[in-house]
């Protein structure tokens, strides 16, 4: 389908991201779609889902996080890319979106401690044995041979993504998952070569890029990182800037700037109010609580759960800081909702590309609407229900309303 373009507007001009051709600068940020079967194989409906995004004009699609090896899964129904036998299923997805003229990048992840024994199929692992306040299970600290095994899992996953015809990969080093755990001094207390200095905390990512590069040759390798979180001794913008520099030195082809870890509460995914009723109904553990206890928990949630402000454009300042210091393309995500803001981000040079997650859930055709002048802002109300809903079923917009039982 022909994508409408306003040629006076850089946002809607073709652009290159790490050699990948995009028809515009608005990217669909990684969003877990929830279309993996029990083994992690992508279900056929996932191709239809991505085709809707491609038809809707997204400049590129970054897939939801696909896990790279046994024990790395973060959530039920998540896709995985740990077996060669899944390559034909992924190829169908890449072929569908390519036929519509849209590139697709696979996000690769390991959940680390942000998972449960039931989902991961084993005790969760982490750089250090520090309990996550949301996931509760005490993780086991990884040994060096296990870390090297994870490095190989990422490289093997990159090969599968390339063989399946994807246009590149994105390493998920944000939001408190394993690679982000290694980067954070709060979660990484190791005394060996994988902990301590930033150079050491970055080592696993450097090794992954090295091994991926050896395995896939020239193939775009991006990374998503946090500019900040609210943990004591956690990620801060100055540190993120150094991480971005290290990524560039290691041969990474582009960096997406985000924020927050699950323990932060509603930080990565910001909301105007804590969605207590959705948490009680859509989270398996809470839904099953007996009535009186559920009432107490419902009362307690807004007192203990945190939410952060501002709600819009909340990583732009940090992305701009990084953009000034690195030569690789910078993508910014987080609360970007208005075409005027997108134009400003691109024109000011705060980032090279913008990415959005929730706006594409409610309107997969948002970029078309922007480009044709049909709309100037997303209809997303930031309720956060879609985030809670992925525990149960494929991702969708609830628009602040609980599903009928
Ligand atoms: C339902 C849902 C699933 C998400 N899944 C992922 C994911 O798989 N990988 C990732 O890096 N971020 C994920 N995110 C975070 C988004 O990519 C994005 O960083 C965040 O939602 C802020 O952007 P937004 O305000 O445009 O939604 C998810 C967010 C939502 C709402
Ligand atoms: S459920 Fe819909 S309206 Fe609510 S945050 Fe998600 S996409 Fe936006």
Protein model, in words:
The protein is of the alpha/beta class. The chain folds into two domains: 10-269 and 310-389, Aldolase class I (TIM Barrel, Alpha-Beta Barrel); 272-306, no CATH class. It has 15 helices and 13 strands. Strands 3-4-6-9-10-11-12-13 form an eight-stranded parallel β-barrel, surrounded by seven helices. β1 and β2 form a beta hairpin. α1 (45-55) packs parallel to α2 (87-99). The protein is globular. The model is unreliable at 1-7 (pLDDT under 50). The chain binds flavin mononucleotide and iron/sulfur cluster. Flavin mononucleotide (FMN) is lined by residues 29-32, 64-65, 107, 172, 174-175, 224, 258, 268-269, 333-336, 356-359, 386-387, 390, 395.
Spatial extent as radius of gyration: 20 Å
Helix content: 25-40%
**Strand order, sheet with most strands:** 3-4-6-9-10-11-12-13
CATH superfamily of the largest domain: Aldolase class I
CA distance, first residue to last residue = 38 Å
Question: Which helices and strands appear, and what pairs or packs with what?
Answer:
Layout: E1 15-17, E2 20-22, E3 26-28, H1 45-55, E4 60-62, E5 66-67, H2 87-99, E6 104-109, H3 117-120, E7 125-126, E8 140-141, H4 144-163, E9 168-173, H5 178-183, H6 198-216, E10 221-226, H7 237-250, E11 254-258, H8 276-282, H9 284-287, H10 291-304, H11 316-325, E12 330-333, H12 339-348, E13 353-356, H13 358-362, H14 366-372, H15 385-389
Parallel strand pairs: 3-4, 3-13, 4-6, 5-6, 6-9, 7-8, 9-10, 10-11, 11-12, 12-13
Antiparallel strand pairs: 1-2
Helix pairs in contact: 1-2, 4-6, 6-7, 7-11
Bound molecules: flavin mononucleotide and iron/sulfur cluster.
Residues 358, 361-362, 380-386, 397-400 line the site of iron/sulfur cluster (SF4).
